Fold this sequence. Notes:
Layout lengths: L5 E5 L3 H13 L3 E5 L2 H10 L4 E5 L7 H11 L4 E7 L3 H9 L4 E5 L3 H29 L12 H15 L4 E4 L6 H11 L7 E5 L5 H9 E2 L11 E2 L1 H4 L4 E5 L6 H13 L1 E2 L8 E2 L3 E6 L3 H6 L5 H7 L2 E4 L10 H11 L6 E2 L1 H9 L5 H15 L4 E2 L6 H4 L18 H19 L4 H7 L4 H11 L8
Parallel strand pairs: 1-2, 1-3, 3-4, 4-5, 6-13, 6-14, 7-10, 10-13, 15-16
Antiparallel strand pairs: 8-9, 11-12
Helix pairs in contact: 2-3, 6-7, 13-15, 17-18, 18-19
Amino acid sequence: MYKKEKILIVEDEKGMNEILKILLDSEGYSVTSVFNGKDALNHIENEIYDIVITDIKMPGADGYTVLKKVKEVSPSTLVIMITAFGTNEDAVEAMKLGAYDYINKPFKVDEIRIVVNRAMEKRRLSREIELLREKIKTTYRLENIIGKSKKMQELMQALPKIAKSNSNVLITGESGSGKELVARAIHNLSNRADKQFVAINCATLPEGLLESELFGYMKGAFTGATQNKEGLFEIADGGSIFLDEIAEMPFSLQAKLLRFIETSTFRRLGSTSDIKVDVRIIAATNKDLKEEIREGRFREDLYYRLNVIPIRIPPLRERKEDIPLLVEHFLKTSGASNVRFSPDAMKRLLEYEWKGNVRELENVIERILLLTEREIILTEDLPPELLEPQRTDQTLPELTDAGIDLDKILEEIEIGYLKKALNLTSGVKTEAAKLLNLSFRSFRHRLAKYGISSFDED
């Protein structure tokens, strides 16, 4: 891992400052030392530290001022105060203001080492707890990828080998086919599994906000930036980052991503210093990136940097033999293991085209369980769209000498699919956009265009 944990020392006594720096350097930390509070404030404004060790009594800006500034711009940073012997009131005041701990002068080297290492363990533990919370929400191990079809078996056999590599991965597949599930499986099977897996959808954020989420920012970098913030690449150091819908990343930001891939470095917005991290990139898209390159919307050099290990996830219609297994899995995870589908109902599931793939199937199962109490699901319990004949050329309006209003017909079709997508996803617009292979921005624009404001059962 490239990134060392960072400590800032603020001590006006030269000898003590040097002792602290030598000691903490020897412990393997990245140590910066300054001799007054004013210089400390400048460093705190421009860098995020894991720990700040500051004397309380200093000319100019004192330790209390330093402590308050740290808590203002980087609340997760731990502050250790150095106090003169016998001035316990200073220590009490510091703890009230949010200091992690304090040390009395004169102090022993071992005492400093113990306090700092204990504080750093607390920092690490806080990050690990966040990682565990994320993992508890959803477990994405290999056994959660369901499928007995040849294509899925080949994919599952390849994943452990892919996981052992540190090369970038590009996952392609239709919306709802399970791209994030595969990305998380790669991470959890890799030697990075004990570090962060960070996921972000590139289509849901405007360019400026997406850049600040990925790379972080410094206080004052833009209106509303009231404190320093780590970006997702920094949070994922040692782990993996999943860039979903990579085709939607703005062209200008693609250049910055390419620079990171080439150098493993980036800059926070508003900063002039580079940060080096070790992050594996797993990207995904439901679009043809070669077509996007031809249309000038995606960088060819970035494509080849991402597409080191390509993975294609087959759509559900190409592996229909997996549908019964998936249905059984969704029934089990919904606490309905006793529920079964009748042969006719299962036949309908097998015949349906599943444009929304596994996600659409999961939503249908959830919807059926909410509306049906019997243990045997019949054909009549299925949603109406599964009972309708699949659209063919014969279902199009008849074209006669009188002509047709093509714009009106296309508008009605578009409105119908917008509402149907919302129905299938219970009104979740980001998921509905994926079903229609639209970016979230484009989907939201179409809803506004036709005055569709919410989940619509019609």
